Amino acid sequence: MAHRATEAQADRGIGRLRRVQVARLPALLSDPWVLSVLMGAVVLVALLTPTAYLVVWSVTGTDIVGILDGGTLHWYATVLSSIDWWNAVLYSLLIAGCASALSLIIVTSVIYQSRQQGPLVQTLGTLAVVGPLLVPLLAYGLALRLTAGRVVPWEWALLLLGHTAIIMPVQYFVMEAGSELVHQHALENARMLGGRFWEIVFRVWLPQMTWPLSCAAAIGLLISFDEIVIATCVIDSSTVTVPKKLFDNIYAGSNPAPAVIAVLVTALSLGILSVLLLIRRRVHD
Amino acid sequence: MQWHRGMPLAPLLAVVAVFWLPVAAWLIKYGGWPSSLMHYAPARVFVNNFVFASLATCASMVIAFPLALSGWHLSRRSRTATAVLTGLVAWPLVVGLLARNYSWIALLQLAEGPAGYAGVQTGLIALVMPGLYTKTAVLVVLTYVFVPIAYICLLQGLMWIPAVQIESATLLGAGKWQLLRRILLPLSTRSAGLAALLIFFSAAGYFVTPAMIGGGKYDMLGNIVLSYVGLGDFRAASAVSVGLLIALVPLYFVAAWLIVLLRRRLIGG
């Protein structure tokens, strides 16, 4: 009898526990943070599925889009052994590297110089640099081709100008956010101690901006490498960038070459990220 | 000679030379009121374009907000977790726009299955996935393209909210929903507004996704401009582009005002 009474009590206890757990469920779902995390998880899965599918498609795809086959590195071999793809990749990397560097020089100069000016000049500088975000890229691409193209007749120069213009706003935001890392008193002390303009820039300000500079350079490189609008407006010759080559082939059938390119670009980005983390560790040390 | 004192002008001149000068010269040459604009692109094309861009903008912001909110909530416990989440969300941006559109072509074809090649959709997946070369597919992929950008802008806006305001509200007895409704949402409105405008400006002139996912059946203004460029009719392409610019002018002032306000908040200048 005592044993059965104990069992009955235990059953009631378990039942209460289950009721509490079930009752807690609606309370959890009414918590905005829990809801946001759940919804965010669903969105994240939806965001990553297509990019994950690229890897699958690059090793199991066939000439008919959407049909998968057994694993094969055939498409990697096709792309890596193609002179056309190598030319496109090297051309894209060259333009991206030069555009990112040029944009970084301009943005760094704007940020450093405008801090020593009044609020009006600072605001005008911000609007001038950020302006390319507000103008449809297609309009700028046309403007570049029809007007700058008369002064600068080379496609690579127009591409360089165009990519520099579109990278500037993004690098500006990254550098502005990173400028909080700069110790202003270090700059003032350097001036009071008689430091010359270029000395202060290269020996005080830039070393403190190493991390934002690296991030801005990497982001600029990736944005320029993936740019298609300016390339479509400006390029007429057979020397094309990677995005232009991909876009020109959309109606020529879709073998997994774009997936291969995407996986290779992802690998390149992982390499750049590793370098950035090394730089960050060195800066903090 | 302290020639570097003239330097404040040098980087601004470079910006003007690289961007503003070509745009100004183009507007002067091709931007007289485009009286023949309606011949190249009827009014309904403009309306459809802006409605489509608005739908993509709203959908991106609504979908990105819970993600940004969870990122902000995680940052209060672990910055590393937020950094990892941001890295995962931004990963599609690294992969590339065209590759992402190609992956959607492959996914949508896969969802249709072999029977899809005969024009018949089958399977449970077909219930939730739109078919390729449909308007819904273009809207879905356009939204997918802009969600990471919306997330980054919204997260930045939430992170700029002073922690002391959150703590004060909590100490004064504000519940979680009150915190969300009366502190987080109002204080992140400017960043959200700027994000929405930036996405709208991009979407209004977009042509890549409508061309690849729409199969050329659902042209936005960007596709019309591109087709004129392909035909070598730059006057027509310019007329349509100028029309697009003129239609966006009121929003430019709003965006400029938001940028200046946000800059003052960030820099204090």
Explain what the structure shows:
The complex is a heterodimer of chains A (285) and B (269). Chain A contains 13 helices and no strands. Chain A has helices spanning 2-29, 32-60, 74-80, 83-114, 119-130, 137-151, 155-178, 184-192, 197-208, 210-225, 229-234, 242-248, 257-284. The radius of gyration of chain A is 27 Å and the shape is extended. The longest helix of chain A is centred in the middle third of the chain and has 32 residues, at 83-114. Chain B has 13 helices and no strands. Chain B has helices at residues 9-30, 37-40, 43-75, 79-95, 97-112, 125-128, 135-159, 163-171, 176-187, 189-204, 208-213, 221-231, 234-267. The model of chain B is unreliable at 115-122 (pLDDT under 50). The interface between A and B is large, with 88 and 91 residues.
Keywords:
heterodimer; A: 285 residues; mainly alpha; extended; B: 269 residues; 13 helices; 0% strand; globular
Helix and strand layout, with pairings?
The complex is a heterodimer of chains A (285) and B (269).
Chain A: H1 2-29, H2 32-60, H3 74-80, H4 83-114, H5 119-130, H6 137-151, H7 155-178, H8 184-192, H9 197-208, H10 210-225, H11 229-234, H12 242-248, H13 257-284
Helix pairs in contact in A: 2-13, 4-5, 4-7, 4-10, 6-7, 7-10, 8-9, 10-13
Chain B: H1 9-30, H2 37-40, H3 43-75, H4 79-95, H5 97-112, H6 125-128, H7 135-159, H8 163-171, H9 176-187, H10 189-204, H11 208-213, H12 221-231, H13 234-267
